[in-house]
Amino acid sequence: MRYFEVRKARIEIIPMIDIMFFLLIFFIMFTLHMIPSKGLSSNLPHSSTAQTLPHPQVIVDLNTQGQIEVDSHVLSPDQLTSYLAHTQDPQHTVVTIAGAGDTSLQHLMTVMDACRRAGVSQIGLAARENHS
Question: Which of 70, 98, 114, 122 could bond 80 through an S-S bridge, CB–CB 3.0 to 4.6 Å?
Fold first, then answer.
C-alpha cells in the first residue's frame, strides 16, 4: 500500500533564490532609472553634430530670462562661481549648461565666465541631436 505512505516534506530553496535574484535586479534597475530624472525638462537647442559627453557632476539650467538654476536653487553668477569654487576639485569638475533654445548668447557667456572664474575648465553644452 504505497498510497498511504507518509512522505517527508521538503522545502525547495533554489526557486526561491532565483526569485530573490530577480527581485534584486528589478529593484536595482528601477532605482537606476529614478536617479537621472532629477533634472528639469527644457527646450534644448538642436545640433547635427551633438555628441554624448561623460556624465556631468554639475548641471546648470539656464532659461530664456537668464535665470541660473543648479539643483533646484536659483543662483546669481557670483553665487554660481562660489558654488563651483567650493566643489572638491574645480579643475576636474565637469559642468554641463542646459540652456533653452532661445537663450541669448550673452546669458550663456555670463554662465561660462562664472564657471571659468571658479576654475572649471570642462564645460559642455546640452543639445538635442537633429534627426533629419
Answer: 114
For the structural domain made of 41-129, what CATH number should be given?
3.30.420.270
Across-strand partners of 61?
69, 98
Within a 10 A sphere around the Cβ of 106, how many other Cβ atoms? 8
- Residues 5-27: tens digit of each pLDDT: 777 777 888 888 999 999 999 98
C-alpha span between 92 and 90 (Å, rounded): 5
The one-letter amino acid code at 55 reads: H
**C-alpha to C-alpha distances, 102 to 98, 127, 129, nearest whole angstrom:** 12, 12, 16
- The three three-digit cell numbers of residue 92, written as one number: 576636474
Residues of the chain with CATH 3.30.420.270: 41-129
